[in-house]
Amino acid sequence: MHTPIHPRRRPWARLLAALLIAIAGAAPLAAPGSAPALGPAFAKTNVGEQDKDPAFDLALRARSPNQLVAAAARYENGDGVTQNTRKAVQLYCKAAAKGETQAAVRLGQIYAFGRGIYRDQDLAAAWFQAAAGKRDVIALRLLKVLKVEGKTKRETECLLDPPLPPAARFASRPHPAKGQVASLVRKLAPQYQLDPELVLALIEAESNFNPRALSPKNAQGLMQLIPATAERFGVRDAWDPEQNLRGGMAYLRWLLARFKGDVQLALAGYNAGEGAVERHGGIPPYAETRAYVSHIIARIN
């Protein structure tokens, strides 16, 4: 089902104002030098880009922390390149791994504001604490703004999307796809340039292969098309299995094109709506959507 979900709004405007005041009043950042690497502060990453960008690839190979931070700032602000926070995070992360305090501060600010990626205040605090450990003035001030007391239990990591919950039990279940539905999916999927196994996993998550499935939000059939989506993709009878499959596959192909082939973003869009993915700059931080994407990815893997 892909009815948009609207999470509870939080008072981020006040936090944003406080952070801006703290940044404006802080002393300039110390230049990188012989300070030891952040070590455990650079724990893990799930970053990665599918689009080709020779300039980014070249910047990512830089060895100098100064060069990495400068390139990251260009991508963060769209200075001479297409603005891309996800690429900026990759570059800042590499610089942070080399002990660059400014990179750790910038990562904290990105996660605190949620600019271009999902907002994660706990992860922001972890990065600020990594920089504060080296007596960075801005990081120390922002920790006070965030009202962080004591050492956060969160490890620093470079995430572009909210962490997905484990799905081992789901993945180990026998696949129920069989008979006419599976045959029809394998026949139709190539027409939409889709992997049949991806479509089957999506159908399992949506309707468990029940062509008469009806959700409380009026999503219908195998691929749980709401009436507006069915009409949008030319489905006259959502209860007809073949029409439902064609409409759902057309929508999934459209989402993959919209998100430049990113399967996880396309799945998130199918569940929560493409607008939610765009607003959050990645998989929306909704428990249902995160579990949905995790389950399907586990199944196809």
Automatic annotation (TrEMBL):
Q: What is the name attached to this protein's record? A: Lytic transglycosylase
Q: What cellular component GO annotations does this protein have?
A: membrane
One matching Pfam family:
SLT
Q: Give the lineage.
A: Bacteria, Pseudomonadati, Pseudomonadota, Gammaproteobacteria, Chromatiales
Domain Transglycosylase SLT, first and last residues per copy: 184-282
Q: Which family does it belong to?
A: Belongs to the transglycosylase Slt family.
Indicate the secretion signal residues: 1-26
The protein's organism comes out as Candidatus Thiodictyon syntrophicum
A single Gene Ontology molecular function, please?
A: peptidoglycan lytic transglycosylase activity
GO BP terms in the entry: peptidoglycan metabolic process
Which keywords does this chain's UniProt record carry?
Signal
